[in-house]
Design a protein that fits this description.
alpha+beta
């Protein structure tokens, strides 16, 4: 963990990676930086994530052990997709109230997937906090069935904090590329989240500049934001 004081951090912000909510598991990848996650439902976990815990712009992490050292790979949800295997089937259908009785697993087969873009990595200390965050492209490939966890605000803050107390978002260009048409929106969602974790005036100025630049780039290059 960095020795730099975090003078504007709220005491209510959790800054540990242990006992975090598991929201899903990896089922496939589109590239080294882009993964598809199947979101858990009530049949997968006793405590399934609510919609606001696995929504657009939610920071997440995956724990990895590399040569005996513990790391987290940071990411963010940039897209979601719903899959209903019954959609498009023809013929009579059972009433909604009768479906659980006659077609077990029908509701559970409806699945929610999330696209997760990777942001970087950080080392995990013995007390489950993080240190030495890097916004460079992770070297390791994640695996199918790796568990994806909701990232607490305190950990998200630490991931964006440098040793000298500055705010860093060195992954922005990469995130814009991976997330494609939704790149600007997910970056702005992260900026808005970081505003709450970095209330100091100097940090707000940095976030203002980033937001202005993202909106300008989007309006010029993509035409999806104004």
């Amino acid at each position: 963990m960095s020795d730099a004081p975090l003078t504007d951090q709220s005491d209510t912000q959790r800054d540990r990676t242990d006992d975090c909510l598991a929201i899903g598991s990896i089922v496939s990848s589109n590239s080294h930086m882009d993964y598809t996650v199947e979101i858990y439902n009530e049949t997968d976990r006793e405590r399934a994530p609510s919609p606001d815990e696995c929504g657009f712009g939610q920071p997440v992490f995956i724990e990895k052990t590399i040569q005996g050292d513990e790391y987290i790979v940071m990411g963010v949800i940039y897209d979601t997709q719903l899959v209903d295997p019954d959609q498009g089937r023809s013929g009579p259908r059972l009433a909604q109230g009768d479906q659980p009785q006659f077609t077990p697993g029908y509701v559970e087969e409806r699945t929610k997937f999330a696209g997760v873009a990777l942001l970087g990595v950080a080392e995990v200390t013995k007390d489950a906090t993080i240190e030495n965050p890097s916004h460079q492209m992770p070297r390791w490939t994640l695996a199918v069935e790796d568990i994806v966890e909701q990232c607490p605000d305190g950990v998200t803050r630490e991931f964006h904090n440098t040793e000298d107390g500055r705010l860093q978002l060195a992954y922005i260009e990469r995130l814009l590329d991976v997330a494609g048409p939704l790149g600007a929106e997910v970056t702005l969602a992260l900026v808005e989240r970081l505003r709450e974790s970095f209330p100091a005036e100097e940090h707000q100025r940095v976030l203002n500049v980033i937001e202005k630049d993202i909106r300008w780039q989007s309006s010029v290059d993509r035409g999806v934001m104004r």
